[in-house]
UniProtKB/TrEMBL annotation:
Highest taxon, organism lineage: Eukaryota
NCBIfam families linked: PRK02399.1-2
Residue span, UPF0261 domain: 35-215, 234-453
One Pfam entry name: UPF0261_C
Name of the protein: Uncharacterized protein
Gene3D superfamilies: Uncharacterised protein family UPF0261, NC domain (3.40.50.12030), Uncharacterised protein family UPF0261, NN domain (3.40.50.12020)
Lineage: Eukaryota, Fungi, Dikarya, Ascomycota, Pezizomycotina
Organism (species): Penicillium salamii
Length: 470
């Protein structure tokens, strides 16, 4: 089995032609496109169910007279023989196992980890050698863990859907920072009862529709080359936001879009938002960062529910792209319902944000640790100190932290600011101390303009005069 050749040679069924002409509405060029969907499943435990999903994809394509290519990869730990399977368990072992290692006798967890690696490499090979328009799978907890791990390595934007028994639980480990769509199976994926068939039918329809939508917005490379189109690139700016810094970020976004050639990506700083932003930086899909809302660091320090990973901030600093860091929403740590706040924090200043989120005011010591975290990352990982700045809004780091508000605490905020100032002194990283609060409209405009100064490489003095931010 040659995975690299699968996408070019395998036509899954005869009811649909191999190609179908599509005419682009903006061009007279006609070209052939066939959507390609990768189907993942553990056929040693979900044989009938995965084949049913495979069949439904074929049926939808047939009803719509739409050509479709399905690559079915068996993610199971035992070899299953079925003509519908494109890439068998044995194929994976033969191509990706260093010494054709037998998986069946291994402990379950170890076997699953190995299969994740093999299937991931197979999918990555397909993504490199052919055009893929969607990935779909179905499984219980183990199957979902395999399928989701593979999907998380696929590009953000490529449709991904899992029909899963654990879609209504804690899905953070499944989705991570990726754009995986989950459909709760309601019943276990065991057998083909009427309810499960409905769910799998919907899954097939959903991924089919998403694949067509994805196909329509990803022009064929040959067509672009024939047109000799070279779009004028916009600067892609990533910004972090929380509800309590929304006014700031909305003003930044509007100002950037009105005054510069930019495309703005706003990330909700709920733990995975920061991860998603840094992943896009790592993939080269963001050119500059306004990390306005670094609240995830507070949850890392105090054990909140929206924590970042310990490597937060590192990716953009290592990349050396223009980056401005601020301290938005560092006045709070996130927990679930009030009764779930850890006992050691029950006497702290708490605000019930909504029935599922309770906010705790950060202490001066926690704020010091947040400041030291930022300093440590900048000092150790910034490739170009002149492209990194830290802005400190002295009038309040969130809508709750302004004077007279629920989380107003000048001591805590100044402790954080002092930690940043003293820690970055003499490093070449510019620290801007501002008396305004983070949601002040003029503060937002100034920080936005300053980022574009870093992007465009203008002389500092000229920029300060232009934007009046001396």
């Amino acid at each position: 089995m040659d995975v690299a050749g699968v996408a070019d040679t395998w036509i899954p069924y005869s009811v649909c032609p191999a190609t179908s002409p599509f005419t682009d509405s903006t061009s007279s060029i006609t070209y052939d496109i066939m959507p390609h969907i990768i189907l993942l499943g553990t056929l040693d435990t979900k044989h009938a169910e995965i084949l049913y999903l495979h069949h439904q994809l074929k049926q939808i394509a047939s009803r719509l007279s739409q050509p479709l290519q399905v690559t079915l990869i068996d993610c199971g730990c035992q070899n299953i023989i079925d003509e519908a399977i494109t890439v068998t368990h044995s194929d994976l072992i033969k191509k990706y196992a260093p010494s054709s290692r037998e998986i069946r006798g291994l402990p379950r967890g170890e076997a699953i980890e190995l299969m994740i690696g093999y299937v991931t490499r197979c999918v990555q090979d397909l993504l490199k050698t052919s055009t893929v328009h969607g990935i779909v799978g179905a499984g219980g907890s183990c199957g979902t863990s395999v399928i989701s791990a593979v999907m998380r390595t696929a590009p953000i934007g490529l449709p991904k859907l899992i029909a899963s028994t654990i879609a209504s639980g804690n899905t953070s480990p499944v989705v991570g920072e990726c754009d995986i769509t989950l459909m709760y199976s309601v019943v276990d994926i065991a057998g083909t009862n009427g309810l499960l068939r409905d769910v799998l039918d919907n899954s097939a329809g959903a991924i089919f529709g998403m694949a067509l939508a994805y196909q329509s917005r990803i022009p064929d490379a040959k067509v672009l080359a024939d047109r000799q189109e070279t779009p004028t690139p916009k600067t892609r700016v990533g910004i972090t936001m929380f509800g309590v810094t929304t006014a700031c970020v909305d003003r930044i976004r509007a100002h950037l879009e009105d005054n510069y050639s930019v495309e703005v990506y706003v990330f909700h700083a709920t733990g995975h938002g920061g991860k998603a932003m840094e992943r896009l930086v790592d993939e080269g899909r963001l050119d500059a960062i306004l990390d306005v809302t670094t609240t995830e660091i507070c949850d890392l320090v105090a054990g909140g529910t929206m924590s970042c990973d310990p490597d937060r901030l590192e990716t953009m600093l290592k990349k050396g792209i223009p980056t401005i860091i601020s301290v938005g929403a560092t006045d709070m740590v996130n927990f679930g319902p009030k009764e779930t706040v850890p006992p050691q924090y029950q006497d702290r200043k708490l605000v019930v944000h909504n029935p599922t989120v309770t906010l705790m005011r950060t202490s001066p010591d926690e704020c010091r640790q947040v400041g030291e975290f930022i300093v440590d990352k900048v000092k150790r990982f910034a490739q170009d100190q002149t492209k990194v700045e830290v802005w400190l809004p002295g009038g309040g780091v969130s809508v709750l932290a302004t004077p007279g508000s629920l989380f107003a605490d000048a001591d805590a905020d100044s402790t954080l600011a002092n930690a940043v100032q003293s820690g970055l002194e003499g490093t070449g990283t510019r620290v801007v101390c501002d008396d305004r609060d983070i949601n002040n409209s003029e503060f937002a405009i100034d920080i936005a303009n300053r980022l574009m100064v870093l992007v465009n490489g203008k002389n500092d003095l000229e920029a300060y005069k232009q934007f009046n931010i001396l």
